[in-house]
Design goal:
With about 200 residues, the chain is α+β, with helices and mostly antiparallel strands. It has four helices and seven strands; from the N terminus they run ααβαββββββα. The protein has one domain. A hairpin with a 4-residue loop joins strand 2 and strand 3. The protein is elongated, with a radius of gyration of 22 Å. The protein has a seven-stranded antiparallel β-sheet.
């Protein structure tokens, strides 16, 4: 007598496997995406921290009041240390310089320079060789920037791949979501060191 599985048993087993896969694959994809973002955030944070440390002793403006409007040379020095492959200004979504999700980005009242209208129509957008963006608030006003660590790729959400960074003598490197409205509890709000990223 030959032993084996009936067709019904095989179909039931495949059905169970399908249900388990349908339940676990989205979670698995989310975990993988978060780990990829962690790596990109670490790389970004380390790069800007290194640039900040290189420049903080060379520019006397860093010791001045943060309300000065003559930060152009310092901000240009930051850009000169980045591998910029593309620069864009105006009609940014149509030109493919920023993702469409930026049109609904919510910013805090203190950062109108990062509003959707400003980003799409007026801001200078610099795409780096690794695909990330850096966008100055204003080139001559402070050293406040918006960064998207993975560029056109999703999720295009503050605290996931979009951050603001502020490089100043008084605050050091302030890397977080201070310019953006919090929309999700599971987001990385502030990065002071690599350990903050690991805890996220």
């Amino acid at each position: 007598m030959k032993k084996g599985f009936t067709l019904a048993e095989i179909l039931i087993t495949l059905g169970i496997i399908g249900i388990v896969a349908a339940l676990t694959i989205p979670t698995l994809k989310s975990v993988i995406q978060k780990n990829i973002l962690k790596t990109q955030i670490k790389k970004s944070f380390s790069m800007y921290k290194q640039i900040y440390n290189e420049l903080k002793y060379d520019y006397t403006i860093m010791a001045a009041s943060d309300n000065q409007h003559s930060w152009g040379p310092y901000n240009n020095a930051i850009l000169s240390r980045l591998k910029i492959v593309k620069q864009c200004q105006g009609n940014a979504i149509e030109k493919g310089c920023i993702p469409e999700e930026y049109a609904s980005l919510q910013v805090s009242g203190g950062c109108p320079g990062f509003s959707p209208d400003a980003l799409i129509n007026r801001a200078g957008i610099y795409t780096l060789s690794d695909g990330s963006f850096i966008i100055p608030y204003y080139m001559t006003w402070l050293s406040l920037w918006m960064i998207d660590v993975n560029g056109l790729k999703g999720p295009n959400k503050p605290g996931y791949d979009i951050f603001s960074i502020w490089l100043s003598k008084s605050n050091g490197l302030d890397y977080g979501t201070g310019c953006f409205v919090k929309t999700d509890n599971d987001m990385l709000e502030e990065v002071i060191n690599i350990k903050d990223i690991e805890k996220w």
